[in-house]
Design a protein that fits this description.
alpha/beta, Rossmann fold, 2 domains, 7 helices, 10 strands, elongated
């Protein structure tokens, strides 16, 4: 497939490696120095999909521009999703394709599933206090991470609102070059139950994004990792 990478930082470069390993062609590598390409429909002729990993400040506009150009787009940018409903509506209006996940790691998405199951089970045991902690590298701009907020949101939904962790109560750490650690803990006077995922590198995120982009090509609609993984 022919791909435009939007956001050519560390994550964009990791995605580039995997795309090339899997035999795909990279048509554009877009960053702040050539962002005007997102206003040029002709520049995207022949592009099968755009993969967008940028910042909370630019993601919404990047995604919107791709949908307006008729380019299927997959995004992993976090910190902007309070406006995701607008993007979903635009995608449907334009009969486009949009894929979003706060985390593309296959392991993290297994964690999401376990988190939902455990929250449903723990809703009957109010003696447990629940907390969410996340650790990322010092370059990550949003806190808490999109992954941590997804865990909190899905926990509340699975427990019918009996278990809640407010966004401001998620414990966030920024240390060195840590790719990402997420932990959910249930604690009582008698015992402690924990679910945790620790990424070893960005490669797992990049691989998941590339696999999801391959899956997205040729589809129409709004999608996420549950659609891709059929869970």
């Amino acid at each position: 497939m022919n791909v435009a990478i939007i956001g050519y930082g560390k994550m964009g470069r990791e995605i580039e490696k995997i795309l090339l390993e899997r035999g795909h062609s990279i048509i554009h590598r877009i960053d702040i120095n050539n962002s005007e390409l997102l206003d040029d429909k002709g520049a995207f002729e022949g592009v099968d999909v755009a993969i967008e990993f940028t910042s909370p400040h630019t993601a919404y506009d990047n995604i919107k521009k791709c949908l307006m150009l008729g380019v299927p787009i997959l995004s992993g940018s976090t910190g902007w999703v309070d406006r995701k409903m607008e993007i979903d509506e635009l995608c449907r209006e334009k009969n486009g394709a949009f894929f979003y996940a706060s985390n593309y790691s296959l392991g993290v998405n297994v964690l999401f599933r376990l988190n939902r199951w455990l929250a449903k089970a723990m809703a009957s045991f109010p003696q447990y206090d629940v907390k969410i902690e996340e650790t990322h590298h010092i370059h990550k701009l949003d806190a808490p991470s999109g992954t941590a907020w997804t865990l909190a949101t899905e926990m509340a939904e699975a427990s019918n609102g009996k278990l809640t962790v407010a966004k401001e109560d998620i414990i966030s750490y920024r240390e060195g070059e840590v790719p990402g650690i997420h932990t959910i803990t249930y604690d009582s006077e008698e015992d402690t139950i924990s679910l945790s995922h620790s990424a070893k590198s960005r490669r797992g995120l990049a691989l998941g994004a590339v696999l999801a982009a391959e899956w997205l090509v040729g589809k129409k609609g709004v999608f996420g990792m549950d659609d891709f993984l059929s869970i």
